[in-house]
Model the fold of this input.
Amino acid sequence: MRVFVLPGEAQDGGAAELRGRDFHYLVRVLRLAVGERFQARDAGGALRACRIASIGADFVRLQLEPPEAEEPGGPAVALIQALPKGRKMDQIVRQVTEAGVAEIVPVFSRFSLSRLDEPGDRERRVERWRRIAREATQQSGGSRVPLISEPLPLEGALDAPAQEGELRLVFHQERLAAGSLHAALAGVPRRVTLLVGPEGGLAEEEVARARERGFQPITIGRRVWRTETAALFAAAVVQCLLEEREAWKPA
Amino acid sequence: MRVFVLPGEAQDGGAAELRGRDFHYLVRVLRLAVGERFQARDAGGALRACRIASIGADFVRLQLEPPEAEEPGGPAVALIQALPKGRKMDQIVRQVTEAGVAEIVPVFSRFSLSRLDEPGDRERRVERWRRIAREATQQSGGSRVPLISEPLPLEGALDAPAQEGELRLVFHQERLAAGSLHAALAGVPRRVTLLVGPEGGLAEEEVARARERGFQPITIGRRVWRTETAALFAAAVVQCLLEEREAWKPA
Done:
């Protein structure tokens, strides 16, 4: 079930050299020998056949075959997530990766309690999230490691120009509009961008700005979600409706 | 947003006496005084107006008004969850409570790594889950604390006779049938029971037995979920489809 994911820095064209935990996993855990083959995803998400070319004391060299053709996926789902407190973002990255999100944009919003102000803090966190995303992709047999951008102010993420066929949704705990998620997704978007607030929610002016920038407010249930549950909930329901797009029509 | 939930053991007809953290919350945090009123859910989930009748050094007595009428909810969702390793069940209980699940049935399945064999283990865990469920209901402003039963063998849960209008679904990582979740939920069930396996999945004979007992296999995506993500994913998508039942029809 598990599909190995090649770390980007290890790959050099048709070859890759792995050390550390990847070396350990392939050589010590899977016990692959020279000449044996296995499937892996490259850093771009393509499925590649790999052959063990050589094994050293602490490294393994792979020879990669050209990418295999795959059925095209559905629309990409991106998550703009206002940074929650402490380590909650780790869980969000792990769970939404499992849910198939293609891109995660961490943002600082007005009520974000995390500022990552210490020197080196941002770099360490981003590196950590990328590692979690890579592991989660691997464990879930996913086809693509989500892109995780450097944290930026919410305004920066909102002001990015919409892509063609992009549907923008802001998940909000108060019912701001009558629309359902089914109605919003009925138009078969090519890309869906979800905005989820931090623990304290988005400020009124942030919701207003998001709406100006084309984000439709969506409410599911009459509940107040913790932000880490809201992110997965949003990703899960959007993914399910997209994947089952042939099975339903708007009423 | 927060709705206070009365612990079952505190309530005695039209009165309740609270101590410990509930006392602290009402008297020290909310600073309610004698004669003041607030809304709470009673242990049965009904919304009750409460009046502070008296305050002692370490207790507060409440006077409860009769339950208020509420709009009826949708179909109840129950989760039969095969016990995962360690403390993962805590996260599952917390997140599916937020997602509005009405009942959680922890079960031991063939690949469950948790046996809760130590003396007192089960009692402590069940008590812990019930406390987590109560807190999560409170924080999310939910209307009803989910019932959590004592852990039992999977067979016991599967063999329970189906209730009238009950839809039974088993979430499985391999696509066992062509059916979509939309098709399964189109029949407007009165109750939905979800079965989610442990880390190692359900054994083949367990899936076979579940199918014999009327559980329809459902697959979302082509991914392998960790069990704690699978449970919330399943609860989230079912809840969303039920809540938006007026917004879609089967294709």
